[in-house]
Structure formats: C-alpha cells, structure tokens
Write a structure and sequence with these properties.
By secondary structure, the protein is of the alpha/beta class. Helix 7 packs across helix 10 and helix 9 crosses helix 10. The longest helix has 21 residues. The radius of gyration is 21 Å and the shape is elongated. The relative contact order is 0.16. The C terminus is likely disordered. The structure holds guanosine-5'-triphosphate and magnesium ion. The site of magnesium ion (MG) has 5 residues, from helix 5.
Length: 341
C-alpha cells in the first residue's frame, strides 16, 4: 500500500513560529517539552539554534504513559548525552515542582549576570516549547496550580502566544505547538500521528493503525515482554503471527462489521487513552548503551496494567473550582512591562 508522505504544517503553526522567534529574544530559559512515549521523534530539529545564549531544561511529559523503569533508562541515556531530563505527568501534577525549581535556578544564573553588569535583577522569563499536544499548556496550568490556559485532547489547541506570571520571580510564555515545516523523517512523523501529536487531516488512519501494530511487534521483538499484552486483553487478538495490515483487517472483521476505518480509529484512540497499557514507541538508542542501563527485562517486568477507561480529565476536575478566564489576568502582559528599553 503506497500513501502520500505524512505532512502537517498548518497556517497557525507557521504564524506561531514567527511570533515565537520574535519573543525568544526576551526569553532567558527554554522549557522544552517532549512526549515520553517518543522522546526522539518530538525533538525539533531546529531546537539547538533557538537555545543559543539561553538556559535549557528538558521536560519529558506523559511519564505515566511509559513503564517506570524505562523512564530510568531514558534518564540515564540523556545523562550520557550531557542532559538532565525532568519527567512529568502534567495530568496528575507529578514532577512539576522539580521543573519549577529548575527554571528558577536557571533564571538565577541570568540574574547573576545582570548583577555582574550592575543591572537590577528581574523575574525569570521562560518559554514552554514543544510539538503540538505534548502537554505544554497542561504543564503551565500545573505550574500555576490553576487552569489559566486551555488544554485539551487534540493537537493545535493553543493558537496564540501568551505570557503568564507564575510568581513574582517567574513568567512563562505558553506557545502553540511547533513542528518542522517539512517532516523529512517519516518514521518520526508516523509516531507523531500514532500519538496524536499532529492533526488528523495529515494522515490516513488505517495506514497509521497498521503501522502502529507493526511498530508494536518490532519493539516486542527487540525487548520481549516490554509491550505487555494490552492488545490481546482488549481485543482478544494477538499480533504475533500477523502483519499490522492483517491485524487491522481481523479486528475490523471480528468486532466492527468489517468497518476498517472504525477499527483503525478505535485502535489509535485506545492507545492514546492508555487503554492498551503504558506502551512506549521508542527506546533509548541501543548503540550507546551502557552498562548502567537497567536490563530490558527489568524494564519489561515493571509494567503497570492498562488504566480503566475514563473520560474524566483529572486536570479539569482538580482545578475546575478555580477556573479563571484568560482575559482576566490582572497582570496584563508582564513581559511587555518588564522589558527594558
Ligand atoms: N496521560 C497524560 N496526559 C496528559 C499529560 N499532560 C497533558 N496531557 C493531556 O494531553 C492533552 C494535550 O494537552 P495540552 O496541554 O493541550 O497540550 P499542548 O502541548 O498545550 O497542545 P497544543 O496547544 O495543541 O500544542 C490534554 O488532554 C491533557 O490532559 C500527561 O502528563 N499525561
Ligand atoms: Mg497548548
């Protein structure tokens, strides 16, 4: 089956990227958010050039969606690359304090440089950058402990850049998700589609669902038991003896009256909601592995069982009582005021 390549670069993202580059001049710290299921595919190829002269903290959000021991392996792997990865679950507020502290500490370095030049210290300005739907806005809401920016289960929710004062010492810029204008790496683009990190209009659900099963099998072959048996448990069908395409055909025949499109959507949605277990789509590259990495078997045995189906968004529930409309920010645009002439 041949299909056109997966491409997604809507106008609002192109516009957002231009505004973001403009705002970056005012920013001291970049909080780069990635999806813990696909830490490599959610690395923007241009991030390095945007980080010039800025402090950087790497956030792996959606940590609840991968096995705990795999988080540890990624942490070790990133350390070997000279980076500290902060794992967060913005839905349940885990790992948030460490990120707030890291931003503050990194900002302190900036203020020290200002003091050295005889200038007064000022609040740290940080931007939250990342691919669409990785949880940037949810992270900001958690940092602020109330729902101040919109966060929802689809890519492209945040459309405008918006500054938010987190504390007298920290101001954060929420930005729309950004993507390379051309997705040259189609293997990565496929993972973005599976994880719902790009718009649905950019791909064919059936092709992506079949490829998801093929990827699942490939990872299960690399690390037996890593992927668990969420497919068998949920659908009563094992992927081990069939191709992804045949799996989808079988699923649609057995449970969806041969409606392959419906089967494909269901499969992708179940994965995205965590109903197939906490299933990663990437592993730390094995050519660099290192003895300190826990064994794959240890990672595999640390799996948690699939979470129950639930439509409740815990962030919504936790902060609904304290909801506030975006326009009511009494601080106005803190950065516009704070920027020195
Ligand atoms: N399981 C899980 N879901 C999360 C986590 N963080 C965010 N989400 C959910 O992911 C969805 C997207 O979150 P957003 O905060 O809107 O993501 P975003 O990166 O701001 O998205 P755009 O504005 O579209 O670029 C929402 O349904 C969140 O509830 C997390 O750590 N774990
Ligand atoms: Mg957002």
């Amino acid at each position: 089956m041949t299909s056109p390549p997966i491409q997604w670069y809507p106008g609002h993202i192109a516009k957002a990227e231009r505004s973001l580059l403009e705002q970056l001049k005012k920013v001291d710290v970049v909080l780069e958010v990635r999806d813990a299921r696909i830490p490599l595919a959610t690395q923007h190829p241009q991030i390095g050039q945007w980080l010039a002269n800025k402090e950087h903290a790497l956030v792996m959000n959606r940590m609840d969606m991968i096995p705990v021991r795999l988080q540890q392996s990624w942490r070790t792997w990133f350390e070997q690359q000279g980076e500290v990865a902060y794992f967060t679950d913005a839905n349940h507020g885990k790992g948030i304090e460490a990120v707030a502290k890291a931003a503050q500490v990194l900002g302190e370095k900036m203020n020290q440089r200002r003091r050295d030049r005889g200038m007064l210290p000022r609040p740290v300005r940080a931007v939250v950058i990342g691919f669409p739907n990785v949880g940037k806005s949810a992270l900001i809401n958690r940092l602020l402990k109330r729902r101040v920016v919109e966060s929802a289960r689809r890519p492209g929710v945040t459309r405008q850049l918006r500054w938010i004062r987190i504390s007298p010492e920290l101001e954060l810029l929420d930005a729309p998700g950004i993507l390379p204008s051309k997705l040259n790496n189609q293997a990565a683009a496929l993972k973005l589609a599976i994880c719902d990190d790009i718009g649905e209009a950019a791909y064919d659900n059936q092709r992506v669902a079949s490829a998801f099963i093929d990827l699942w099998k490939q990872l299960a072959d690399t690390v037996p038991a890593l992927m668990g048996n969420g497919l068998e448990t949920r659908y009563g069908l094992s992927p081990s003896e069939v191709t992804g395409e045949s799996y989808l055909a079988l699923l649609s025949e057995r449970r969806y009256q041969n409606d392959t499109e419906r089967a494909a959507r269901q499969l992708l949605n179940d994965f995205r909601k965590g109903l197939l277990g906490n299933v990663p789509l990437e592993l730390p590259p094995l050519e660099l592995p290192p003895l300190e990495l826990p064994s794959w078997e240890a990672i595999a045995t640390d799996r948690e069982s699939p979470v129950p189906d639930s439509e409740i968004d815990p962030v919504e529930a936790a902060i609904a009582a304290d909801q506030e409309s975006p326009e009511s920010d009494p601080e106005g645009d803190p950065v516009a005021e704070a920027v020195e002439s």
